Amino acid sequence: MQEKELEQLLGQVASGEMDLAKAKEMLLHLPYEELQFAKIDHHREMRQGVCEVIYGAGKTAKQISQILQHLLAVPGGNLLATRVEKEKAAYVQSQVPQAQYDAVSRLLYVRRKQEEKGLVLVLCAGTADLPVAEEAALTADLLGAKVQRVYDVGVAGIHRLLEQYPLLRQANVLIVVAGMEGALASVVGGLVEKPVIAVPTSVGYGASFDGLAALLAMLNSCSAGITVVNIDNGFGAGFAAANINRFMKEDESC
Amino acid sequence: MQEKELEQLLGQVASGEMDLAKAKEMLLHLPYEELQFAKIDHHREMRQGVCEVIYGAGKTAKQISQILQHLLAVPGGNLLATRVEKEKAAYVQSQVPQAQYDAVSRLLYVRRKQEEKGLVLVLCAGTADLPVAEEAALTADLLGAKVQRVYDVGVAGIHRLLEQYPLLRQANVLIVVAGMEGALASVVGGLVEKPVIAVPTSVGYGASFDGLAALLAMLNSCSAGITVVNIDNGFGAGFAAANINRFMKEDESC
Amino acid sequence: MQEKELEQLLGQVASGEMDLAKAKEMLLHLPYEELQFAKIDHHREMRQGVCEVIYGAGKTAKQISQILQHLLAVPGGNLLATRVEKEKAAYVQSQVPQAQYDAVSRLLYVRRKQEEKGLVLVLCAGTADLPVAEEAALTADLLGAKVQRVYDVGVAGIHRLLEQYPLLRQANVLIVVAGMEGALASVVGGLVEKPVIAVPTSVGYGASFDGLAALLAMLNSCSAGITVVNIDNGFGAGFAAANINRFMKEDESC
Amino acid sequence: MQEKELEQLLGQVASGEMDLAKAKEMLLHLPYEELQFAKIDHHREMRQGVCEVIYGAGKTAKQISQILQHLLAVPGGNLLATRVEKEKAAYVQSQVPQAQYDAVSRLLYVRRKQEEKGLVLVLCAGTADLPVAEEAALTADLLGAKVQRVYDVGVAGIHRLLEQYPLLRQANVLIVVAGMEGALASVVGGLVEKPVIAVPTSVGYGASFDGLAALLAMLNSCSAGITVVNIDNGFGAGFAAANINRFMKEDESC
Amino acid sequence: MQEKELEQLLGQVASGEMDLAKAKEMLLHLPYEELQFAKIDHHREMRQGVCEVIYGAGKTAKQISQILQHLLAVPGGNLLATRVEKEKAAYVQSQVPQAQYDAVSRLLYVRRKQEEKGLVLVLCAGTADLPVAEEAALTADLLGAKVQRVYDVGVAGIHRLLEQYPLLRQANVLIVVAGMEGALASVVGGLVEKPVIAVPTSVGYGASFDGLAALLAMLNSCSAGITVVNIDNGFGAGFAAANINRFMKEDESC
Amino acid sequence: MQEKELEQLLGQVASGEMDLAKAKEMLLHLPYEELQFAKIDHHREMRQGVCEVIYGAGKTAKQISQILQHLLAVPGGNLLATRVEKEKAAYVQSQVPQAQYDAVSRLLYVRRKQEEKGLVLVLCAGTADLPVAEEAALTADLLGAKVQRVYDVGVAGIHRLLEQYPLLRQANVLIVVAGMEGALASVVGGLVEKPVIAVPTSVGYGASFDGLAALLAMLNSCSAGITVVNIDNGFGAGFAAANINRFMKEDESC
Amino acid sequence: MQEKELEQLLGQVASGEMDLAKAKEMLLHLPYEELQFAKIDHHREMRQGVCEVIYGAGKTAKQISQILQHLLAVPGGNLLATRVEKEKAAYVQSQVPQAQYDAVSRLLYVRRKQEEKGLVLVLCAGTADLPVAEEAALTADLLGAKVQRVYDVGVAGIHRLLEQYPLLRQANVLIVVAGMEGALASVVGGLVEKPVIAVPTSVGYGASFDGLAALLAMLNSCSAGITVVNIDNGFGAGFAAANINRFMKEDESC
Amino acid sequence: MQEKELEQLLGQVASGEMDLAKAKEMLLHLPYEELQFAKIDHHREMRQGVCEVIYGAGKTAKQISQILQHLLAVPGGNLLATRVEKEKAAYVQSQVPQAQYDAVSRLLYVRRKQEEKGLVLVLCAGTADLPVAEEAALTADLLGAKVQRVYDVGVAGIHRLLEQYPLLRQANVLIVVAGMEGALASVVGGLVEKPVIAVPTSVGYGASFDGLAALLAMLNSCSAGITVVNIDNGFGAGFAAANINRFMKEDESC
Hints:
- Chain A is an alpha/beta fold.
- Chain A has 2 domains: about 5-110, no CATH class; about 115-250, Rossmann fold (3-Layer(aba) Sandwich), CATH 3.40.50.
- Chain A has helices spanning about 1-15, 20-30, 60-70, 85-95, 130-140, 160, 165-170, 185-190, 210-220, 235-245, and strands spanning about 50-55, 80, 100, 105-110, 115-125, 145-150, 175-180, 195-200, 225-230.
- A 5-stranded parallel beta sheet of chain A has the order 6-5-7-8-9, with helices on both faces.
- Chain A is globular, with a radius of gyration of 23 Å.
- In chain A, about 60% of the residues are buried.
- Chains A and H meet through helix 8, strand 9 and helix 10 of A and helix 8, strand 9 and helix 10 of H.
């Protein structure tokens, strides 16, 4: 349509129907709605069609269902809806039979591609951090990364973490999920040279202030180069990790 | 320059030098740098050239001086630099003799137009709020509003405020500047029907937490429709007030 | 009544029934209850009778019902009760059949006048911000403004917002509703010259701290002249916007 | 008992059964458990037996019931249990028929004395503040004060408060209960010379942060000499006010 | 003057010079500035002329000097300026020789009356709390109270406080000044039945957060009826205490 | 197993099957997984097998059940699961009949040893602090300490605490549990010379901010040497106290 | 003196000069000032006279000097003044030649006894934590403990800490001093079974919020039984550690 | 040395001087200090010797000087000291002539290698953010990345940013530096698919609370996959970006 209008205008210029000054004027004042000409990857979805993401919180089961059906009509990558409660998921699955639901991470997804690139390692400190860790792991997986999990390696028993040292060094990107004092991120950050993404969780009580303690700790990590996402934002960490992993050199993972 | 390129392209279309498909392609993929074609009022400066604003904090005296000289080369409205310390101001004035400096509000300005439209009323609770109140008042003034000041009308002596009732009702927009518990905004908001902009100040000690107490109070005002700016942000309030005042019907001020 | 008493007193002075000293004494000690002599628009309701507002939170369905019936007995403008839960609304509607209820914004209202003055534009970043955005939009509407909605234009897909550029420039007042990082307000503020009122919402999780992140972001906006209301205070923003819009010059909306 | 031991010791000294050195030694090392000798008014209950207070929160209905029965066995003043939920109150009343329950303030009490001394005035800003205001009022009443209520006098409609000016000046002590921005305390504090006790309430939303806004506002009041109690602590304010009122000169209330 | 105008008006009514309708009109629309007719004690100064208070912070030495000279021209009570720095005080004293300066409390004052009514007891926990304690003590003294000091009775050495028990019970009002954990207020509150006013100080470091720890502790005191003022607000506590003390029955102090 | 591998390697070195350089290389690069060679007491459990601790929060009844059964298969000390809700406890008890449940502290445990070493004294301020106090007391008990409780000794009635003075001086370690203003810790800290561990609780309302007030107060205690654990962390305090008590000299308690 | 009065009273009882009832009465009403009878270790100083502590902050050089001279007049243990600035220390040393000053920890002390009991280990994460670590170390030393320092063992290089493992296991008490994210405390807590005292420091910037990040992290440590002191409170940690160390069994350290 | 000891032990095993059991015992109990056998990249320095980093804050000029000289003695990569004040830098430069100092970013460095790999783009919102932006840019540069700067592209003038769209899409990693409301990160995050690292700065006043507003905004970004570092932590962002950039596929930068 808009391409057509442009075609028309240029045709008129070519044919002399429209004089140059007017054409220039029209193009100069080209309002913002013409911006779709530019190739913005809107919603920051990955161009290779690896995955489309729906932010599930605040959407009805019906809305999620319809969006998924809409996306499934077109061939493409994996589809992912985050923060979907159990009941909503059941409804969506009744409408979209291909959809799978992971109750721990509350992710609802349709897997249409299986990629296993590089290595994203997801570590977590305690069992209570599992929902966030799984959100990170499954997100990275659906976004095309090979994912491995190293759970229950809290710093209070440092040897459990150190036993995993060789594995740590193999990862392209490491996601560290921890609540309470969030110290795991700093220790891991000191052991590897690859990018480390820290996810504070709201696990804890009292002066954890719903994850604030872990968040502040991770932001103040003495291990250089650790970056941090929002409290309980497993999705964000998985997304960022898969993103970095995707652009990494194959042979870099030793 | 870029206009020229566009002219050239259209010329080539008109002359047949460039075929339509290629022209369309080029225009379709028109990258964002072409956006200056669109008429964005950048820096949100007022189009009528009433005033150009320089955020003075973090700029050297020399930088401010050069920007002012640059702006003065072109005829236009008033020029205003905010948060300029005394020493910087002295230097700038030695370079730009037209520049005036108001030590209370730390505003440095060149007045090239005198407008006195409508009425912006600036109220403040105590004498310590004066620098912020003056920043608001002088900003609104330079932006073309008629400004009146009603100072030292804190709610602890409510009669002082009530004595100004007729004046309050005449204003197009009211700016209420108060530190400590910031109650003045609510009381004023209850007395008038015109827009009220509240400016919390960092005046106070102890549990005022550098203006947090006043800020929260103003955000929670029981008087409907009061809007709030950042702590000590006299400039923002003056700007917003002048902006509203500028678009108001003349005969509305009773 | 009280006018009568005053008349009587003056009559007695004129007739010599009351001596001057006593009359002076009585008038000097004129207690505050005589203040209703002065013309205060109490409750800051708009004098033109556009709208009466009832703060619904903390009131019983019966109380709201009675107040509405009381107000309906007198001819006048629209009536509006805020923050009314579904169940309460149902009861009120059983008693006051004219009352309409909007479940999204939780506004209960009786529309007795239809005005469509100027243009208030309500923008919101995501679908979860809708209840607050609708509270703002419907409030402004009931207070006499023509209202348009531009929803789901979060800054993560900036082109969606830019496409609305011409519409943005037409509005008299813009209300920007956003949770999470609240960045939309700053971007909109940079695109228009009309007053922008920002409403932070409690949408988000973790370090959004129930809207604190968005609130602070909006208060610190680098776009000059944005003013802010309380978290989730759609009503306050709608009220302020309608108020500014009402006093604006007709021909100002381009 | 312990008095008896002391008696015995002194008897032994008098009779020569115990030598002076040993008696001195025993008295010198008199351990702390002997402290009940001293007349401490424990629980800070009023000595005149006006009222005994039970902090109801965290106590079972049965516990409250037993304590009341125990206290009722001895003649004395009024009995008061705070923060008692409806269900608990019903049980207690089934066991202690004299007990009355006020559902608004959640106070459960047995009135055995009626005193109406001086005047404590309880003001509140909005209807949502009522539970706290009533807790203050009924507490002061049960502690022997004459109490008057002036409700719904928020500062957004300042004339409603000013109409009560003569009454304000009559009170011995004033309790100001307000949520949201808590401005009422400052205005009242500026109108009277008697002690003003401010009670912030958790009424509000968003940036009221459960009463923090009102608390900070009241602590920063520009009206000298206002004192503040904890958020929603109507009991504390009523207690303090009754306490001050009790010691005031009769003729002081003008 | 204004009394004169009223007199005149009434005279004109009496003499028939002014007709009733016009007189009624004038009195009915009596604007707010006529409010001084009513007897508001503005600045909440005490009517008996005990003391006039100047808030010194943010005022120049010259301003304070002029206000004092102005007040001294009229016979009256004591004069008090708070938060006056040493250098300012020296200047004021050079201009107002009667002025005395207390460097600890930073109070500058002129004593014109000596009253020693009742008993206000000022307690403080540590030597670092002295400036605030002295501000409270001297303020209460200048406002007409007999004041006694009990310093350095922190709860870490509870016996030091308990030794003062008889004195504690004699006071009409007790001011408790404490930084760090502010526990002293609760202990004193449990020992006496008279009003206790708690003043948190900014004494401490680290997690005292400039007095926040003490402030919160005092607001949450388990001793019923303690009221609190702002951090470091010795003046406010002294003012409130003197105010309560002034209205107390003479014979109440045992 | 790993011991075997090492044995093998050394055997090969001894037998000359492996040359020295290769053996050195293998041992030098001994990866971290060999760390279990070192004798780390993982989980910081006490080596004497006094007690094994399971953090119950976030674990299912089944998981707790299985862990307990696993641990019971091996002879050893007491077993303890913290923060176990009533329903979970019932299930576990149906599977592990030896398990006892304390509903107040929400501790589920199997007592296999009875030790009564030294003396840990647990004090609490009010009845609402009981769950935390009991968690501390029972934890210390299961970890081998003799425990005594001194409850309801809030500082508002200081004599109740002072009566326990001799007992206070007998304890090896004192745990002070208090919500609201947490002043009890400072007073106790001033009365004894033994280690004092303070536990803030979330008991309170309003400005207690879920235990923040007590936490800050305890951290700022003016009694030297008090150490603090997280809000409501009775387990942590009991653990630390039992730990200190365990290493104390027998004859030190007097 | 007071002993004398008691002697006298008992003498009068014995001689019959005072009758029993009156003596009983006098003793019963024995006011609190008699409390010095009881043997309270005031200021919580150690009874063995190991050390007397002066809180130096807020005291003048002269005051510190006089207190030290006063204490030196009596034979006894070490003397310690905390938080003494360099200039004050120089003055004190000019008056009290025996006094030594440690500029890093700002401790001023007179060593009169040398004890080296047990082992207190002080660890710190970075060189910026040194002032606090040294305050802890020197305090513990002066209070009679043998002290060893393990500095610069931040968790970003975990091997540096692990190299010290044997030493860690030898200590009676461990003090862990760390700013930024404070993770060191959790790691150390997981490696040893002895008491660990964590000291957050204000080292860091941005979201360390002057030590809040480290404080929260330490309070939320996943290593059981860690206790925490105020931010930068090296003295408190040293005091507590020496106190625990002092009562520990000799043979326990290994 | 330690390698030698191991060699010796193995030699003794081989020669039969040491029996197998003893050798096994020694190796089994191999204490942690042997951990240096393992190849940990301590200090998380990059193995390729690109850069050694010294945290300059809290170190004396002399210390920095000596460390640099020590590092320069060995051939290797670039050397970098952060947060070095001007005066310290001058001293270091007098000792280490090769050292260069950048006064804006306060980085002191020795460049021994010049690498220009990939592309790290550093964007900042305003001129006041420059010191942090430059710290990020120069750090990434010294760590081997090609760096480009896009400054002064705050969202208030969105077109300035959009003009850079093609450049944005070319970068491997983008660092977004912004104070005030930090909205730039979200807008950039929505325009590119490569990793975005956000750095909040303390630029702002009032409710920016020293960078808290920007920090919270960035953590709550609606653009998926943005990660965040501490306030003003340009170094951390530069480090992380260079790290990601280093492992990226060459051909990925389009």
